[in-house]
């Protein structure tokens, strides 16, 4: 919680994967802080293709959502929703005061949040016959490829994952094996 001229600001940070997750989280926050005046937020999703939104929830344009989004950027985060709840204290802060207050609320929430680092992985589908099992398994073991899912019926289909940085090398390693098909998972 952050206090500025009798107004109280509560900051929250949530991990998200999709925009659809935002609405239920906001509804929960609004129930928890039902007497608050504003529930401003910003979120960012994605790595190679970034999608973001900032919402001022009735505050003057760009005085709440964008300062919150600025903190997401300065912490270099993605797949995160930051909500700052304001209880109006009776004294107007002005646009500059609001910008500073929402920025501080978001910053305080992110400073105490547990930030999780994740790798960006590329998923491939590898298809082959049983006679090529040893060749495929050798590449998986030597290149430290993560096996996500395997289907072994008349032929074999593996879903594998590898860090984006090494994806091209892995694609070429499997593509070079005769009678083994590899394609990026959609």
From TrEMBL:
Coiled coil: none annotated. GO terms for cellular component: cytoplasm. Residues 5-110 form the Impact N-terminal domain. Pfam families: Impact_N (PF01205). Signal peptide: none annotated. InterPro entries: Impact, Impact_N, Impact_N_sf, Ribosomal_Su5_D2-typ_SF. GO terms for biological process: regulation of translational initiation. Belongs to the IMPACT family. PANTHER family: IMPACT FAMILY MEMBER YIGZ, IMPACT-RELATED. This is YigZ family protein. The lineage of its organism: Bacteria, Pseudomonadati, Bacteroidota, Flavobacteriia, Flavobacteriales.
